[in-house]
Amino acid sequence: MHLAGESGPTAPSSTDGALVERARRGEHDAYAELVRRYSTIAHRTAVLIAGPADAEDAVQEAFISAFYALARFRQEASFKPWLLAIVANAARNKLRSSGRQPRLRDRLAVDRAIGPVHVAPSAESAVVDADQRRSLADAIDQLPAKARLVVTCRYLLELSEAETAQVLGWPAGTVKSRLSRALDGLRLALSVSSTPEVGEP
How many Å apart are CA 31 and CA 177, to the nearest integer? Predict the structure, then answer.
C-alpha cells in the first residue's frame, strides 16, 4: 500500500469522517489525503517523543497501523487525536527499543515548526531568547516521563486537554492533575535556574 503519492479526485473540503468512510471502502486516495492532512503533526509528535532518528519509522508504522484499524474508528470521534494516539504509541515503542532518550533541545532543533511555548504567564518570558528556550527544554527533560508526555502533547503539539487525554489514553482528570504538577515543576526549575548563585553580580 502506498501511503503517499497516490492522488485522486479527493475534494479538499472533505471531512475526516467522510475520508475515513471512503478509505474503509477501499479508496486509497481518500486515505492518502488523510496522510497528507496529518503527516506534519504526526511527524512532530514522533520527533518530540522518540527523537529524529526514529521518527520517520514510527510515523510510517503508525499510518499503516491506522489504516488497518480504520474499522475500529468511531465516526463520531475526532480523527486527529485517534491517529496521534497510534503515532505516540509507535514512537514510545521505538524509544523503549532504542534505549536512549534524546534531549528535548535536540528534538526541538529538528522541529523548526514549533513556535513559542507558553506554559504559564510566569514562564512566558522564559521562551524569548535561545538561552532561555534551552533552559525550558532542559527543565522539561528533567520531568518524570508522564509529565514530559503531557507537556509535550498539551503545549508543544498544542492539543486541547481532551485531545491530550485521548492521545495518551488517560482520563481527563488525570491529564489536568499531571499537567498542573508538571507546570509547577517547570516553574520551580526555571526560577531556580534563573536565580544567581551567591557571589554572582
Answer: 36
User: For 69-160, where are the alpha helices, taking DSSP H only?
Assistant: 79-98, 104-110, 130-141, 145-151
**Burial degree of 176 (CB within 10 A; 0-12, 13-18, 19+):** middle
Whole-number Å distance between alpha carbons of 136 and 148: 12
Q: Among residues 12, 8, 88, 11, which one has the least CA distance to residue 50?
A: 88
Sequence-distant (6+) residues with CB within 8 A of 60 are 3
Give residue-wise pLDDT tens across range 69-124.
Answer: 999 999 889 999 999 999 999 999 998 887 666 677 667 665 544 444 444 444 44
DSSP 8-state assignment for residue 68: H
Domain 1-102 fold is: Rna Polymerase Sigma Factor; Chain: A (1.10.1740)
What pLDDT, on the 0 to 100 scale, is given for residue 136?
85
CATH of domain 115-196: 1.10.10.10
Q: pLDDT tens for residues 32-79?
A: 999 999 999 999 999 999 988 899 999 999 999 999 999 999 988 999
